[in-house]
# Entry
Amino acid sequence: MKNIRLGNHYKKFLNNLSYNHEKIQPEKDCKESYLITNKPNAQLFKAKLNVLNDGRAILKANYTSYSGVKNKFINYFDRNGNEIIHSNNSTRVEKKYFDSI
# Structure
């Protein structure tokens, strides 16, 4: 698909260097689910990583910037665990690609 590239593996959220993670009860159609939080000395960050049975993954995050602005985003990952990235940072295009694989 045009303007799509693959980025970092979702395991970057599970490496304990920048984030804390806790395995939680998997959601429906998921083989694993994790609650991801930032280390205590970083901005407020909370996310849920769901690894689907086919290997794809979805990360839904809420965070507060250092200036106090609240943000939400969703990252999609392919079957190999690599982040799906659109050149214009379009979540719709990323989701369409995610659904097509």
Remarks:
- The chain has one domain: 4-100.
- Residues 4-100 form one domain.
